[in-house]
Structure formats: C-alpha cells, structure tokens
Design goal:
By secondary structure, this protein is an alpha/beta fold. It is built from 17 helices and 29 strands.
Amino acid sequence: MPKIQGLSYGGDYNPEQWPEEVWPRDVELMREAGVNLVTVGVFAWAWLEPEPGGYAFDRLDRIMDGLHDGGIRVCLATATASPPPWFSYAHPETLPVDADGRRLSYGSRQAICASSPVYRQAALALTEQLAQRYRDHPALAVWHVHNEYACHNAHCYCDVSAAAFRDWLQRRHGDLAGLNAAWGTAFWSQTYTDWAQVQPPRATPTSSNPGQVLDFKRFSSDEHLACFVAERDALHRLSPGVPVTTNLMTASCVNLDHWAWGREMTGPDRLLSNDHYLLGEHPLEPPAQIAFAADLSRSLAGGPWLLMEHSTSAVNWQPRNLAKPPGQLRRDALAHVARGSEGALYFQWRASRAGSEKWHSAMLPHAGTDSKIWREVVQLGTDLRALAEIEGSRTGAEVAVLLDYGSVWAQEAANQPSADMVAFDEIRRWHSALWRAGITADLAPPDADLGRYRLVLAPALYAVTDDAVANLTGYVAAGGSLVIGPYSGLVDECDQVRPAPLPGAFAELLGIRVEEFFPLRAAETVRLDDGSTAAVWTELLAAPDAEVLARYADGPVPGAPAITRRGTAGGPAWYLGTRLADAPLGRLLAEVAAGVGVHPELPGTPGVEAIRRRHADGRSYLFLLNHGDRPAEVDATGLDLLTGERWTGPTRVAAHGAVVLAQPAAEGPA
C-alpha cells in the first residue's frame, strides 16, 4: 500500500453505529493509539443506499475527510457482504436455500445466493458508485471487497444455483458422458440422460453421490470467487493504482479453495489479507493456531500479506469466550507480523453497544481508556511504529506442508472408513508439531514447485491428481525428502479409487502395499515397538521395498509395519500408516528434519518462539516471543527495536514478553 509508510495498524471502524458527535473523539483516540489505517463501511450498505438506487454518501464524505485530517488512511469497503432488508424483501430469490430446500431469511448477514445475477448486479452498482466518488480521495489507501466470503453461506441449493452448477459442470466435464464417468453414476442407477436432471446435492434418502458433492464444493468456491473478481475488476477499472483486497479466513474457512483465491489476490494492485480468531478450547495452543493461519496466509500471498482482523481479547461467538491475559494482545499481533504480515488490524475499533457482536472485544472497549486493553493497544501502536524498517522483509521456510482443498473435501464425504480421519485437522496438527520444534513451515498445494524445500510433508492427501503424483515423485527423484501420512494417495480427483496396489498413487514411491484398513474405536490407542503410541487408524501393511522403522506392538494388526522409509536414488520417502500421538509425531518430524539439514531458528529455547524476517540485502529481524511464565535467556544478539536496547550477550526476554532483534547480514544463522 503506497500510502502507508511502515506497518499498518488499526481496525474496522463502524461510524454508522454511533452519533456523529462521537466521530471527532474517535479520530483523537486513534491518533493517541498510533492508528494509521481503518477499514470503513464493511456492513454499511443500508447506510449508503437506504432505498433502491438512492445513494447517500454525505456522511461517508465527512468520515473520509475527518480521517484524512487526522492523518489516518482508509481501507474502504464495498459493503456488499450484507444487503439491506429492502433489497432482500424486494428480491427474495437472492436469499440462500439450504440442502433441505428451506429458503433462509434475511436478518443477520451474508443472506445471499452467490450465484444470483440480481445480487451481483446490485453489488456491482454500489461498488461502482463508491469507486467513482472516492477514487481520488486522499485518505483512500486500499479497497476492501465484501467480507469473509462463504463464512455463513458457503453453499446455496436454489434453482438459480442449480442452473449455474450445470453450466459449471459442462465447462468441467464437457458432456453427460464425461459427467457420468466422473461421478460413477452407474452405481445406484444414477446415470443422467439430460442436463436438466442434474442438480445440486440436495437432501436425499441417504448419502449423496460423492463425486457430485465434491464438484458442488468446487463450484461453490468458484461462485464466491467470481463475485470477488467482478467487484475487484470494477475497482481496477474505475480506481486504477489502488490495491484491492478481501479478508480471507485461512485457518477456519475450509469451504474455499484458497489456492485459487490466492492466485486472484496477488499481483499488481492486489493485496492478500486474512482474518484470524483464536479458538479458546481448541486442542492446538493459541500460538500454534496463529502460526498456522499466518504461515498459510504468507504461502498464499507468496510473500508479505496483511492481518485484516483479529481480536484484542475475547470474541462473542464461541460457547465460552475466553479473554486474553495481560501481554497476549501484544504477542499475538507480533506473531502474525513475524510470519509476514505487514501490520496488525482488529475487529473492531470501538466496541458495539447493540447487535450480535456487542460483547466482542475491541481496541476501544466498553470499559473505555482506563483499561488493560486500551493501555495494551497504545503500547502495540508504539511497538509497530518502532518496527517500521521491517516492512517488505520476508519470512522464509525450508519445509512445506501440503494442503489440497479438493482432497480435504473428498475425505469429508460420507461413508469413509473412519469419521475420525479429518484431513484439515491433521494437517494443522503436523504443522503444530513443527511449530513446537521451532521450525517455520510454508503450506503448499501438491502440484506446486517444491524444489526450494529440503523437506515436504503430506499429512493427509487422500485424493491426488496424476500431475501432483508426478510432481511429488519428481521432487523425491531430484533429492527431496518426503513424509506421507496415512490414508493418502487412494483416490483420484473424482474421488474414484486408484488401481491396486494401495495406496495407488504412492505404493511404488513408498515401496509399500496396504492390504486392509483397520480403523480404531473412539479413544482406542495402540502401541508401537519403538515406544510410541498412536490412535484413530491402523493398516495391514507390507513393506516389500522399504525399511520398517516401527511395527505395531498391539492392536488389530500386531507385528505389521507402522512406519517405513524407502531410500531412492534421489531422496528418502517415509510413510506413517497410523496417526502418531502428538509427542511421538513431534519427535519423528524433528528427527527427519534434522536428518535433512532443517533445524530450528534457535534450538534449546523451550517456551520462546523464534521467527526470522529477512530483507533481500541480508539484514534480518529475529522475533522472540516468550509464551512462558518465567523470563528466558536466548543465545542471540542484536538491537531490540522495541526498546532500543542492544544485546551483546544472551538476550533476556521477559515472561510473556517480546523482543525483536535487528541483525546485520553477518549475524545470525542464514
């Protein structure tokens, strides 16, 4: 964003929720906190277009002018995420329909069918009005399209969506013969003889065709993406030179193929941004949750990105909304910045007095400025200004964790051997194991160029294309090291079982043969002869061309191989035929990483997260985040940008504290 110098800091600003006399005070407090960027208008459609075609921009004019006078830049939203009641009332056909045929009502947000041409036309009309009016406004820094696509309306099963689905299928499969072959419709007498017979996977007496369900998920992601692209292109046409973004939810929204979205959100005048909220009772530690979301966002962007939303403390939508203890606000924001974000923005600036999110934390809380949150907000503003020189530096990784959304969706289909084999959760768990080992990792699709990585992990790759198989085989042949998890390589992109031997895509590469699956009961565990424990899944496995590293000591298949390794003329390939418990999984991955030359940024610092950002000229910045209750001494030197203190011996990081060491090119590991 050319108009932002240094890192961005601020959040969603919703002046439409407040009387106008509050607005000047907001600007004063933003300046006190060090805010330099706010997102305006995300849910302001009813405010901006109170009646059909009757646009009212006078209040937004005053907001834009007031923010500019205060030295604050604006991320201006197109407000298209929530049509006003007058629109939905006049056009009920734009409301989404669920799989049971119920048309959902307006009264919350995202009450939209993404395929509706009526909605798209109205959204574009508003977008064009905003672009024409504010394209030259000096406060405008970036355009913000819609909000959190597919958060609540990922799939619509209405007749409009059905027609769009048929068009999409014709482009993908060509003719009905191609469709019937891809879906395997000979099963259960499902063969289609006319395109009019094809519909979304609506509620049926039992489970729907898996190929149909998988294609519908692909189609739905593409329909939301088409909405974004239409608004983005209108903004590029009418407001050239101003970056355009939308806020993804990389760690929680598995309904979108984020690789496809990333391709449309990177490049000239485009910015990839992400929202991230901690899940208070999730099995992964909060810092590990942040690491996954940030690493995925960075990987989608191919470099720096922007944290568009997170929370200063508690959210409002979990069963138990846990507040952040002192210091966590700062560490959470700096953790995102360490992993590539060019700033830290929040939902929202001022806590709402009404509505569903009135108990969501904010930068300016209900308690006002005499509060823990406000003091930490002001401190973070100071911190981010002190870190201005890191802008444009990048976070590198030597390990990639594979994530394929089509494979994740295929594995979600009904009638799998075990409902506990949840792909996205397992991918996050392997990434978390690397995080605990102090190793920064990228995420990557299986058909990506993997040559720059020393190690590639495929925790859950159930469905895989022939091109991806060739890519991974070529990666190993070229000397790369690959670890594959259980239940991988079994089906193609149509969710059809690959020819024997199992696992069809990887049997030769791994030198193994799977004879039968033996899933475990809920909470059942097995022991391996190396002392490890595992759960969820076992296989009757033979290893005719691989070294057996561990066997089952008990369980359904005692004595059968559980972990194997095959050396090739290129690099090694490991296979895990079970889901190791967290501790043994972490040990194994750390050992494999060390064996191929991948080491943590700073070994031997438990409780201290260490991440490095680096400029092209070699200057780097070592982020040290102490998640422990005691001070820690870290074997690192440099100038702490947060305090101005220069450390020439071990660096001391306060309990729950943070240090960012600026180091010249000669210092620190490369």
